[in-house]
Amino acid sequence: MTWQDVLLDGFGRLPGVVEHIAKGLKQEDLDWRPQKDSNCIGWLFWHATRGEDAQMSDLMGEKQLWISGGWHKKFNRPADAGDTGFGHKPKQLAAFKSPPASVLIGYQRAVTKRSLKYIKSLKGADLGRELNEPWFQPLPTVGVRLMSILEDSILHGGEASYVRGLRQGMGWQKY
Hints:
CATH architecture: Up-down Bundle
Distance between the termini: 27 Å
CATH topology: Four Helix Bundle (Hemerythrin (Met), subunit A)
Shape: globular
Number of helices: 9
Strand content: under 5%
CATH superfamily: dinb family like domain
Number of domains: 1
CATH class: Mainly Alpha
Order of helices and strands: HHHHHHHHH
């Protein structure tokens, strides 16, 4: 197994995470928050996918699918490339309304498809290319950024799974 196989496998699992956790959820389940300042399942998946879309787009030098693919319309949100949920305050969390699970899944699938295409295009030497982000020291590389995106998505998937467990109790996770 190569480094590329590992990344392809990791990123390739993300749509399945969203599908598994969101399966059978109603609108009120997607929007339910355990506390006033907590994230709901829909927001967690939107945020993780937005983060992947924004960061991969930056690495690729392409426009975000959020805007170019019209996903912002399906989420009933503005075409704001900077709105990824990073730094959202409780008031913004409360205002977030999830689209149907099928839209959350569709967006993740589209972003993952493009991410996999990008990863397949990389050569080993590309992973060590430093990114022009002087606010981070040491400067991150493409490889570090890819692992950061994957880690963030996995963590938010775990959070969404936990929130679903809080909402529905044990037993929802049938394989």
